[in-house]
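User: quick one, fold this
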Amino acid sequence: MPPKYKRVLLKLSGEALQGDRSFGISPTYTRYLADEIRSIHELGVETAIVLGGGNWMRGASVAEQGIEEATAHYMGMLAMVINALALQSQLEAVGIQARVQSALEIRAVAEPYIRRRAIRHLEKGRVVVFGAGTGNPFFTSDTAAALRAAEIDANVILMGKNKVDGVYDADPRVVPTARKYAKLTYQEMLEKKLTVMDQTAAALAAERDIEILVFDISAAGALRRAVLGERIGTLVHS
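Assistant:
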């Protein structure tokens, strides 16, 4: 089957790299993620990635400990770069050319973010990993994902959750009777106060008419199935 999407933006939380660890990066699980990404790369899907940094730290949480808030957010952006470099290394280990582009200039380890260069990398079959969020404090990695998806004209934002296979009306890990949504509009998501992504990110994705597919990245083969257009997870649309 040909893929449903030509160009995708894969959004992963920092915790996605933890695997079964409580902190930091699991090399084994990061290799698993690289293999999953390779499975859609082999289909010819142009793939960009945004990673959070919550496996190391969250800017908002650090700010609560007395560090100036903007500084705490910059620290969180640097954590995102660490994760981007780890994933880049594992992608290259499985035979995929990958480039890290950072919204903060760290030329020794990453390219500066340049939209046209990112698109050119994608057209050449390279995976692009965006680091450091938007490069500005007070914005989440969700907002960075929506922004980069809009900038590179991605067809969809694939939100890979860890052991959660979609959007529910309650936390399925706490409420066994929680109901899963197959589809949602952005308006319904906001009205029901469902925590798919923050409101700034949702507003940008809705304005640009970019679909979001929420699925379980820890389920082997789920990423490939999502790209092929199989009915998995929850689709959020305009």
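User: anything notable?
Assistant: The chain has a mean pLDDT of 93.
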